[in-house]
Specification:
GO terms for molecular function: mRNA binding; structural constituent of ribosome. This protein has one helix at about 105-135; strands at about 10-15, 20-25, 30-35, 55-60, 70. It is an alpha+beta fold. The protein has 2 domains: about 10-70, Nucleic acid-binding proteins (OB fold (Dihydrolipoamide Acetyltransferase, E2P)); about 100-135.
Length: about 140
């Protein structure tokens, strides 16, 4: 039985590479899920999302040169955001921040710290490249 474009099937991950994952389909054929088709979010390391032996729902995409292309993110439609606004308790005190969700100030502080660390890394990288050029 040939796999038809647009069908949604369930398969098993049989192998993982830096560029994607190989999935065995129910009829015994294998296809590949490119790393860009694994999740809606940016996937830096596919191992964070999949591992060998996982059962995944995939959608068959148009193939190239007789190969079967698959997509996990197109097989699972995105959740529609609720039109109802979120209920946020703005009255919570800072003392409760450690036991509950982080406060805005805590989140902003963490963001600023991470941002400064990234900027330092970039500056170090640029300085290293500049100093290497002068030594030639």
């Amino acid at each position: 039985m040939a796999v038809e474009e647009g069908t949604i099937l369930e398969g098993t991950v049989t192998g993982i590479a830096a560029f994607g994952a190989f999935v065995r389909l129910p009829d015994g054929e294998s296809g590949m899920v490119h790393i860009s088709e694994v999740a809606d979010a940016y996937v830096r390391d596919i191992n964070d999302f999949l591992k060998v032996g996982d059962t995944v729902k995939v959608k068959v995409l148009p193939g190239h040169n007789g190969k079967i292309s698959l997509s996990i993110k197109k097989a699972n439609p995105p959740k529609k955001p609720s039109s109802k606004p979120m209920d946020i308790d703005w009255r919570s005190s800072r003392s409760n921040a450690s036991s509950g969700p982080a406060s805005f100030e805590d989140l902003m502080s963490k963001f600023m710290k991470d941002s400064e660390e990234r900027l330092l890394d970039v500056k170090r990288s640029q300085d290293h490249k500049r100093s290497g050029y002068a030594k030639r």
